[in-house]
Amino acid sequence: MSPTLTESSFSGALALELQGLADADHLRRFKAGQVIFTAGEKGDGFYVVQEGSVEIFAHLGNDETRVLARIGAGDFFGEMAVLDEVPRSASARAELDTQAIYITREELLALLEDRPKLALTLVHEFSRRVRTLNHKYLDDILQAERLAVVGRFASTIVHDFKHPLAVIALAAELATRPISRETQLKAERAIARQVENMNSMLQELIEFARPSGHRVPLTAQSFSAFAVPLIEEMGSSTTLRGVSLQLATPPPDVVVKIDAKRVSRLLYNLVTNAVDAIGGTGQITVQFAVLDTFLRVSVADTGAGIPVEIVAHLFEPFTTYGKAHGTGLGLSICRRIVEDHGGKIWVESTPGTGATFLFTLPLEPVASP
Predict the structure, then answer these.
(1) 272: CB partners within 8 A, 6+ apart
(2) What DSSP character marks residue 352?
(3) pLDDT single digits (tens) 155-208
């Protein structure tokens, strides 16, 4: 008895149109694991699966293959090479013992010529398959990007923690020996400093892992009351590294709605980056301007500036310039903090003349009397 296609084994109008081709001359049987066709072959026909399952796969090199799709009973495969007359772009093999109806290119084209509705059905099916493949491709890309970020995290932690851990190990060993109190204090300070550096890097990783757009409680407060003690504290720190921190204008007494801890980290990151960019003695200038409905803050340094090709990527994760150590997350965190507050951040730089980082924070509207 000749095999037949049914509505349950192949859907809609296409099943009815192919019914007449489901005879013994068109039947093909394949054992599990048998290759049906390979990439690069001429596409002179396509297959409609009756029973079993077929894998569509591609070779990735080094004898590695990747399954692109699985075709079950009632579905078809191999049609693209038939329609566009180019070599097959992927290979097919039977995943299970499989039987399928083989339809030649000439038979398919004759059907399409006689029955325009069949062509429309095929177009709809091809469109659905392309959309499905696009979604799968995007999902694969997102997964690969997530894994890449995890890898960069791990690499960053291992690389950047090596130096402080080595310093801590040497200082701890030194502190256990019979040494002078002064040398012991130096070792203790070295340990404390490296622990602080490691804690700072961990805080950057935690901040980076915070979901984008995450909203934390914002508090309305005087910007001058917030900024003055913070800048004084940072100025004392930069002086120890030979860099003076100057205010071109005093912090204005305007009301902003902020998360004080996150904006403190924002300013701290920008000033620390400026110190690293200077790489010796120099000056950092902080300036404030109240413009319409927002406050603009600028942090300028007397360093060597930033090349144009770096500027375009400076706020992307793991991008660093002019720093021997660090996670490469500082400026991407700055951007996230600013954007979560409803502001913008950017950099202006000419190589050889330093760089200026600017960001805005919306002002809290003044209540009408």
Answers:
(1) 330
(2) T
(3) 656 656 666 677 777 777 776 777 787 877 777 777 776 777 677 667 666 666
Say how far apart CA 86 and CA 298 lie, in whole Å: 59
Report for 30-39, 68-77, 148-157: range of highest mean pLDDT: 30-39
Distance CA 114, CA 111 (A): 5
CB 94 within 8 A of CB 39: no
Neighbours of 230 (CB within 10 A): 16
Predicted confidence band at 297 (pLDDT cuts at 50, 70, 90)? Answer: very high
Which residues share a beta bridge with 219?
258
- Burial readout 308-326 (b: 16 or more C-beta within 10 A, e: otherwise): eebbeebbebbebbbeeeb
Strand partners, 285: 246, 300
Place of tokens 């912090």: 251
Task: Give me the helices (H) in the chain, please.
Answer: 12-18, 79-84, 105-114, 116-175, 181-209, 223-239, 260-278, 308-311, 330-340
Closest among 100, 88, 78 to 30, alpha carbons compared: 100
Structure tokens at 315: 């706020």
116 Cβ contact list (under 8 Å, min separation 6): none
pLDDT of residue 3: 45
Supply the DSSP symbol for 248: S
The DSSP line for 268-313 is HHHHHHHHHHH-SSEEEEEEEEEETTEEEEEEEE-S----HHHHTT
Global pTM?
A: 0.51
Q: Residue 67: which of 85, 90, 96, 86 has the closest Cα?
A: 90
Token pair 């007449």 is at which residue?
Answer: 20
Parallel, antiparallel, or unpaired: how do β-strands 282-291 and 243-247 relate? parallel
